[in-house]
Amino acid sequence: MRSTATPASRTPVVVTPAEAFRRACRYEWRHLAGLRSTWVLLGVVAVLSLLTGITVLLDLDRDRAVGSATMADVIAWTPLATQVPALCFFMLVLGTGPVSTDLVRGAARTTWLASNGRSTAYAAKCVVGFLVGAGVAAGSALLGGVSSALVLAVAGAPQPAWAGVLVPTLRFVLWVGCWALLCLALVALVRSRIVPVLILCMWPLIGERLVGGLLGYVPGLKGVGDWLPFAAGRAMLTDVSAYPADDRPFAQALVGSHLSTPTATSVFCLYTVLITAAGLWAYRRHDVAGH
User: Fold this and answer.
1) Strand, helix or coil at 223?
2) Model's pTM, two decimal places?
């Protein structure tokens, strides 16, 4: 007589949402870590971060200690870019890759099966992306700080008050983590990898300055440019009030926003949350390319 008992191997395995999310995060991390380009980019970031001390050496005043605000800016903005930290140009590759691989290159079905759904997959990409971005920024800041300290010690120059560098550095780490989220969210929204890269390169550098300037001529909108995403992001990175009075006008011109640092941090993070949520909506709505 044939047995009707269900073999143990066929017993359905119930996966809890927490376990599905953990598996999805592990899947995303393994995928990112398995790419050679990831490690090449991280190597480039490490080398450039170690060269931060050279920037300090070029503007070194042997008779006066480097201010904490100046050192924080050196760590966050070196190699110097006009509007955004150069580190973020390298993070564009890491940040845009996970979603573009799914929606542009047609690997979405595999991801959704491995991650137990689109929402879980997107949430895992966000968590892994944020942690990778923040981790790379923290490592870059550490290498840059060590490099700068060694250069100052060899040159016999006074060290800055390193305790005062910690809080600005933490804001920098948060900024880069948010940047990674913006990268993946924009790819989900426009379903392209090249277009988001162009947007994230050109909008902070040119577009936002132009839009902010034009809005200043509209009655009732003067000052609204201070609240634009990357104007707030620059004010988040650079606390103009911490600079000596003589240096504040120049620093203020570079930042382009009069928001206080705490307000700017909240505004930039809010923009990140809203755009990331819009990316979730788009990611759940899009199907695989070609279907």
Assistant:
1) coil
2) 0.81
Mean pLDDT estimate for the chain: 78
> What is d(CA 208, CA 189) in angstroms, rounded to the nearest whole number?
19
Burial of 217 (0-12, 13-18, 19+ CB in 10 A): exposed
Report helix, strand or coil for 151.
helix
Cα angle 183, 186, 192 (rounded to 5 degrees) comes to 100
- Give the C-alpha separation, 265 to 188, whole Å: 24
Which amino acid is it at 175? W
Count of C-beta atoms within a 10 Å radius of residue 113: 10
pLDDT for 130 equals 93
Cis peptide before 196 (omega within 30 of 0): no
Q: What percent of the chain lies above the pLDDT cut of 70?
A: 77
Burial class (CB in 10 A: 0-12, 13-18, 19+), 160: buried
Q: Is 14 exposed, middle or buried (0-12, 13-18, 19+ CB in 10 A)?
A: exposed
Contact between 117 and 25 under an 8 Å Cβ cutoff? The reply is: no
